[in-house]
């Protein structure tokens, strides 16, 4: 794969990182005569610049700013997070004064290889007063006139004289992809600047916009990603990510439709693609939510009599219908923390009563995937995202594999155990909520600890986790039965 230099020091913003990046100025540029209401400077404490500038950015909605993914890199490698001390100055030609400066509440970076997916959104703690820029309807073609903006370095040295306070701009065009071929340009990117690189972005221009005329105003067509010396710059084509950006910015609060209140815990009605309307319905919750003895470590419980009332909720969290469990078909707290109850009603009966049922996803979620958590036991819901996948989670003698770590804004409390984690795009259940480190304890009840792939243990107070449920799918057979002997079923089996 051809590579390119990033036009930002990204994570560390160290002197050595800066020296390795392209050092040509915003060639052909001049100082902007007027401010742009949408133009922003992302400022981070790690910047070597006294003004804190790290990257360019553009306001696309009152509380949302777009930049590039490598501008939000962090020590943890998180794709979603709540940074401390990040801020954006918006609507000024000066990087150190004027306009308005607003703290960053959250960053969301698009998953995938930076080459082709170098885009990120910043949610501001308060709405900006300035007028956002509209995103262009489509990726611009070659020869389209554009203007590029930035506060990138104007010379090679890490000295104040190379850090412009005044915004610079240059008028140029979109080039054919061939002009950026050496930089490994992708289909979601555009090549911007002069062919000889004399008009191009420079170091610390990353995230800065390329804008195109639209009537009397401007539209956003690109954000600086990288480039090579003596060539045009490679920009992420912002219109190519419109759907992803709209989904992130929508932050729709999920309804409680289909959530189950299970006497102190939460749950959901689930099925697979092969389930028949005449099959007994199944209820999914946590293994630690069973009423009898909990499954022992390294073991499971199957076909145990347990009669419990099940209340299925409507969109507003009010009872829609009820059912009863006939037996605990399966439960374990090893590998994953799940329990499946068989109900006294079929899928067809519950559907006729207006109950919503969910299908189980056959694959697990990835980092940064959105998830909706609907907790019937709490009558509350959360819009969250996968903060990471933990190779091993230990708690009170139990070991859980590939646990789902939530982002910091996902805060279900006691009573949310067993709540489904639903991918809002597919509507499929990808996991269930199961635990929180309450006091900062080490691997004790209510205080799970993480173990990474190299065996290093860590403890994170107040961090919350869910368990993946894809492993259930290969174990379900006709008639809502569990077949632990199935070749593809890897669920923990009972100890004889």
Structure description:
The chain is mainly β and 496 residues long. It folds into two domains: 5-250, Trypsin-like serine proteases (Thrombin, subunit H); 259-482, Trypsin-like serine proteases (Thrombin, subunit H), CATH 2.40.10.10. Helix content is 5%, strand content 39%. The chain is built from four helices and 34 strands. It has helices at residues 15-20, 114-117, 242-250, 347-352; strands spanning 5-6, 30-31, 39-43, 53-61, 64-67, 80-81, 87-90, 100-109, 120-124, 134-135, 145-150, 168-175, 189-192, 209-214, 217-227, 233-237, 259-261, 266-271, 280-285, 300-304, 309-313, 319-332, 338-346, 358-359, 370-375, 380-395, 398-406, 420-422, 429-436, 449-451, 457-458, 464-468, 476-477, 481-482. The strands form five sheets. It has a six-stranded antiparallel barrel. It has a six-stranded antiparallel barrel with strand order 3-4-5-9-8-7. A hairpin with a 5-residue loop joins strand 21 and strand 22 (319-332). The longest helix is centred in the middle third of the chain and has 9 residues, at 242-250. The model is unreliable at 9-25 (pLDDT under 50).
